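The following record pairs a protein chain with its ligand, magnesium ion.
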Amino acid sequence: MKEAIVLAGGLGTRLAHTVSDRQKVMAPAGGRPFLAYVLRDLKNKGFEKAVLAVSYKNEQIYEYFKDEYLGMKLIYSVEKEPLGTGGAIKQAFRYIENDYALVLNGDTYFDADTDALFSLFTDKNADIVLAAKKMPDCTRHSTIKTDSDGKIISFLEKKENKDGYINGGVYIIRKSVFDSFKNGRFSFEKEILEKAQDGLYALLSEGYFIDMGVPEAYFRANTEIPLLFGENIFKAAFLDRDGVICKEKHHLYKPEDFEFIDGAVQAIEELREKGYLIFVITNQAGVAKGLYTEEDVHTLHSFMLELIRDKTHIDGIYYCPYHEDGVIAEYKKYSPDRKPGDGMIKRAIEDSQKKGIIIDLESSILVGDKLSDIEAGKKAGIGKNILVRSGHKEDLDSHIPDIITDSLATLTDLI
Ligand SMILES: [Mg+2]
């Protein structure tokens, strides 16, 4: 029986090779917990049992996965106190029947060839084999040097700004390497890996690798991971900018005048966690009217994205600089992009298709503070078109919107 240990929990149980220790196994990718994909990958690779090394705070994980997932048996090895990576693996081995197991991080996905890892483990009669991932830039990682036989000669400190192989955090480990360690807290990397003399081998791999501990990668995983597993249908939230995300200020273009509406950033993150891709669609007729330039629009958007960089992610920003009553000749024209036209929504859909993503309009939403926003959403065929009262206060004798609510912050409970 193929058995795996997945480090999915407590503080310090993360195999160190990254910049952050944030627990991300339950962070969503495409609306599903990241760990679900890690487990599905194990199932696809023929594993029948996974021991999840979790902290005592494991309710969220247990409630989602219970004792079996996709027909794979799950056992929970609960850390009553932080055990470090070494202690966590040693404890989890109690539930392993073989005298070895695949060991991996629950918040990293590395498409390593586990069959090849097992072969190397057997052929060399190794104690530990690890899957090493080729990286174009190893500035943030320590690198691995091997001999021609695959045997690891050394771990080098992070400093080289060039390509190399890093520890991908996927191992086959022989249970007996823990024999001389007492139960309790210790580091697998420092106490075992870096001190190992013999029996330590690496399988060099160029497989897909993503680490949820790195914010940039965490946001990227949202689409990349589902796509990797053949899930290409996404829902999207199309958000107007002024009066929805930021406070309505007449012809806003200066970063110093930019102000988020209360709760908007948090609401965007909640939408993202519910599996929505986030697109901003905004009319910017001020360009046609000569009040500011397209460059000013870009500057403001870069400023906005910088403010939210570590908090949430926007998948695309579309703006329409045209207006029929403009004074700048090149922008003085009708454009199907200008809401109530649905051109910007269509462009977001087309750009997504180029990345292999299909937007399911029926389950998508649009949020605006004007009826022209709502009309654009209706025209495009978006399932729910929501009017918020946080910007321009529309006269509401119209029943066009599907939902009317105070702001983005009050919306997330309604959908
Ligand atoms: Mg608006």
